[in-house]
């Protein structure tokens, strides 16, 4: 494994989906409808990262809908905390604390 | 929807300066950095325990700077995958950044390439979300790219510092992935997305993306994530267009 080539290729593969897209899309006048549609990107992407993360935490594509799934339990409580507080820091602290409590204390690590 | 109800970006400054935007970007990114830290640590540990050299692990965080693809690459290295396979996988896993870039592009037209190139390189899930929100705030300050700069720079430094700690700690600490520290990223994203759900179209967009992300999860290379996000966007637009048109206000933030 040539680590230099590994990183060079990865860096290029990542950069070309970022920088050139900004330049190209900036050059074409976007229809207002596309512009409006893109407003939904942040929430949609985040949801699409979160939900498999809590429902399928073992990376095996199997839904674990049980109370012993700490990702799911802490995830649901975190949603409630985020909804009530609208504060990302409080959500992280409560959610992470609860998650570690379930993992380390209730599930015994 | 008032500025008081969202705490990610806080209140928009009245008299905006470069320095003020920069520090606002940093301040709003700080909680997200806390959430990203364990992820950086786990990457550092995973990379060296999977057979990458300390230099390669650091090099990835310094020059690639894309968390989930770095993890996947480290695992592919351990599995002796060929270089083109790793490159292609990286490309596909990071395709969602093209969606981010397209979203931000109209706001960055006026910037010289000396700004666009580094800001483009520094695009991450976290920075994208808070910068997209900042750009949608109604105040017309010309310095919102300084907000982007503040957010991106600190995400970058933070990610690299935690990678370094992970690389140094290596196998001498208990496997942080087994502890489930990866939940930190998930809970950060929960804290970000829930306050965004302020309208019916966004709610339907989120529900659609959620369901689709589970349905398409078995597809390789996170491609299901991209499909789910696009379906979520389409759902949001459909619900929005079915609603009775409401008078445009000056505060049309998502």
3D structure, described in words:
The complex is a heterodimer of chains A (109) and B (254). With 109 residues, chain A is an all-alpha fold. Helix content of chain A is 72%, strand content 0%. Chain A has six helices and no strands. In chain A, α5 packs antiparallel against α6. Chain A is extended. Chain A starts with a helix and ends with a helix. Chain B has 254 residues and is an all-alpha fold. Chain B has twelve helices and no strands. In chain B, α1 packs antiparallel against α7, α1 packs parallel to α8 and α11 packs antiparallel against α12. The radius of gyration of chain B is 19 Å and the shape is globular. Chains A and B meet through α1, α2, α3, α4 and α5 of A and α1, α2, α3, α4 and α5 of B.
Q: Which assembly state applies to the chains in this document? A: heterodimer
How much β-strand is present in the residues of chain B?
Answer: under 5%
Tell me the number of strands of chain B.
Answer: 0
Structural class of chain A: mainly alpha
Mean pLDDT of chain B: 88
Shape of chain B: globular
List low-pLDDT spans of chain B. Answer: 1-9
Structural class of chain B: mainly alpha
Q: Give the SSE string of chain B.
A: HHHHHHHHHHHH
N-to-C terminal Cα separation of chain A, in Å? Answer: 35 Å
Series of secondary-structure elements of chain A, N-terminal to C-terminal: HHHHHH
Helix content of chain B: 55-70%
Helical content of chain A, roughly?
over 70%
Q: Give the amount of beta strand of chain A, in percent.
A: under 5%
| Largest sheet, strands/sense/barrel of chain A | none
